[in-house]
Design a protein that fits this description.
By secondary structure, the protein is mostly helical. It has helices at residues 5-11, 16-33, 40-47, 55-91, 93-100, 102-116, 123-140, 144-156, 158-166, 176-189, 197-209, 230-241, 255-263, 271-285, 290-302, 306-309, 313-316, 318-341, 358-363, 369-379, 386-392, 398-401, 421-435, 454-488, 494-518, 529-542, 574-585, and strands at 119-121, 142-143, 224-225, 228-229, 346-347, 355-356, 405-407, 439-444, 447-452, 546-547. 63% of the residues lie in helices and 5% in strands. The protein has a three-stranded antiparallel sheet with strand order 2-6-5. A three-stranded mixed sheet has the order 8-9-10.
Length: 589
């Protein structure tokens, strides 16, 4: 209450309004906090232990009493509406659970379809297909430079190899490309600790070109060039230009981390992706390219302290890097000698496409690990290798190579024997799975449309409308209790606010289920800024399906609804409360 309760109790000659406000304050305190602010004697004195002076005091007391009585009925009706919404929300439970797990069900359905497409072969066909794939692997051979790198890493020894890998950031792997980039910087330094102006120009150009994927021709900022993170070059450029952007604190994963995360299906949007989008807009608006932007920004940074912040291996680990170069030279010399002896054979006319023939490498009598790995790869059947081999050799048919093989009995026409254990299992699994699913996907005009079987959709639509209408009515009741709170000088909204909060949660879960089903929300995500950005990136790059009907609920568009007679409630509508309370309190309400 606005006035001090103790002071009012000590006042003695209370007005009827003050008496009733004290009674209301006590009831609110008991219901909300479980504490009474009045004694039994106080309660008796306020209600029964006094005599009104005249009819005016009687009318005033009765006015607040009647308003309070109506408030009680209004609260009961609001609670009834809330409980009705709650029942409708739980009525959705089965449908929501199927929506939430639809991506998993969809993946399961795809796996069942893949099982149906396993190539059924007898033992003779299996051997033929395996030998055909083996022949392609041998024909492809082994890149000479990659062989030099593998042999050099092996000759370097475990201890120095571990040091070389630790010399770089944990997100950067030491591979052939990394070492090649490091070697280019070492050549540009030419034994010095600083680059010449001409060398800076060349390095900046290399960094700029590194931002474009050679195959897709798309820009990529999650790569590094010899330890120089491209996203940092982009970040410095934007800051110098005064371009504002959200500085996400998400860890920026390097190439190895990104590949690993993609392989495990846990893609994440890092700062590099965000900066790339901003740079693309900037480049378009200023008629330039990301490659040119990064070249200029890198050149500027090289004039400052780039190589001090991200020193190449030739500067940070000079002795180790020189040892690597020496070992690499030894590895190359070793392979050249084997070629000279005829133990290894080379195919390819230019230095860039020198390839060791697969046959010669497979037949090489050697204990080198990369040779053993190559032989193992040749001898092992790869079910998913067909597309690669078919692209390299048009004469090879992908469907003869890129398949999982099922060696079993065939039917009369060459198909899977339906009476086989595998055939019976697939049939039962498919039938069982399909009969339990009521969410379907169809493709229309290049878009994936998600729909729910009619009976379930009817229930989902009905419950959606009930939740929307109920929420609108609760908002109308909230307005009533806000007005009454001012009149009775006590917070009378705490119950209605609690119900509204819970219904708001129901709506969020309703929308969340649809978001999971359509791919707009990822399983295992959270509400952090980084997670939201990750979801936005995946939506942008992977696309989402759409619901056939608009089944989401836009909370912000729901407005208070006084007219609830059409919903069949026992009273004549929320509007009645507005009218009767306005009649009782006049301008106060």
């Amino acid at each position: 209450m606005a006035k001090n309760i103790t002071a009012l109790l000590q006042k003695g000659n209370l007005t009827p309004k003050e008496r009733f406000l004290l009674i209301v304050a006590n009831e609110v305190s008991e219901e909300r906090d479980g504490k009474s602010i009045l004694t039994e004697a106080d309660k008796h004195a306020l209600s029964e232990g006094w005599t009104p002076k005249d009819n005016n005091e009687v009318r005033e007391y009765n006015r607040y009493h009647e308003g309070w009585r109506l408030a009680g009925f209004a609260e009961l009706d609001a609670q009834t509406i809330f409980l009705s919404i709650k029942a409708e929300y739980f009525r959705q439970s089965i449908i929501k659970s199927h929506l939430i797990f639809h991506p998993i069900y969809k993946n399961t359905r795809n796996l069942i379809e893949r099982l149906e497409k396993i190539k059924v072969v007898d033992i003779k066909e299996a051997i033929e297909i395996t030998e055909k794939q083996r022949a392609v692997k041998l024909k492809d051979g082994f890149d000479f430079d990659y062989a030099v790198f593998n042999l050099a890493m092996e000759l370097l020894g475990d201890k120095d190899r571990a040091k070389l890998e630790e010399a770089r950031d944990e997100d950067i792997i030491i591979d052939e490309t990394t070492i090649t980039d490091e070697t280019k910087i070492a050549d540009l330094l030419a034994g010095k600790t600083e680059l010449t102006k001409e060398a800076k120009e060349k390095l900046a150009e290399l960094v700029g070109k590194h931002s474009t994927n050679n195959y897709t021709k798309e820009s990529q900022l999650y790569y590094d060039y010899a330890g120089i993170p491209l996203y940092e070059v982009a970040e410095r450029f934007l800051k110098d230009k005064g371009v504002k952007f959200s500085d996400s604190k998400d860890k920026v994963i390097g190439r190895a981390g990104r590949v690993a995360m993609e392989m495990t299906g846990r893609d994440t949007l890092d700062k590099a992706e965000k900066l790339k989008d901003i740079l693309e807009d900037y480049a378009r608006d200023n008629k330039t390219t990301i490659e040119a932007i990064l070249k200029g920004a890198c050149l500027k940074w090289l004039d400052e302290d780039l190589l001090k912040q991200h020193p190449p291996l030739v500067l940070s680990h000079k002795e180790l890097f020189n040892k690597w170069l020496k070992t690499k030279a030894e590895a190359k010399e070793t392979l050249e000698k084997l070629i000279a002896k005829g133990e290894l054979k080379i195919q390819g006319e230019t230095r860039q496409d020198r390839t060791i023939t697969g046959e010669s490498l497979y037949n090489l009598k050697s204990d080198y690990e990369f040779v053993k790995d190559f032989k193992k790869q040749v001898d092992e059947y790869e079910a998913n290798a067909g597309r690669v081999y078919a692209d390299n050799d048009p004469e090879q048919k992908g469907d003869n190579l890129d398949v999982e093989l099922l060696i079993t009995n065939k039917g009369e026409t060459g198909e899977l024997d339906i009476t086989s254990m595998f055939g019976l299992t697939i049939k039962q699994l498919k039938n069982k799975f399909e009969t339990t699913q009521f969410i379907r996907e169809t493709e229309k005009d290049g878009e994936i449309i998600l729909d729910i079987d009619e009976d379930y959709k009817k229930v989902f639509k009905e419950t959606r409308e009930s939740i929307i209408n109920g929420y609108a009515r609760l908002l109308a009741f909230e307005e009533i209790f806000k007005k009454l709170s001012k009149i009775y000088e006590a917070d009378l909204t705490f119950k209605i606010n609690g119900w509204l909060k819970e219904v708001s949660y129901f709506i969020d879960r309703h929308n969340e289920a649809l978001s999971y089903a359509t791919g707009q929300k990822l399983h295992g995500g959270d509400d952090s800024e980084g997670s939201k950005e990750a979801q936005s990136w995946l939506i942008k790059h992977r696309g989402v399906s759409k619901t056939k009907d608009d089944l989401f609920i836009d909370k912000e568009k729901i407005k208070p609804n006084k007219d609830d007679e059409r919903y069949g409630v026992r009273m004549s509508g929320i509007e009645r409360y507005y009218k009767e309370l306005a009649k009782i309190f006049d301008k106060e309400f």
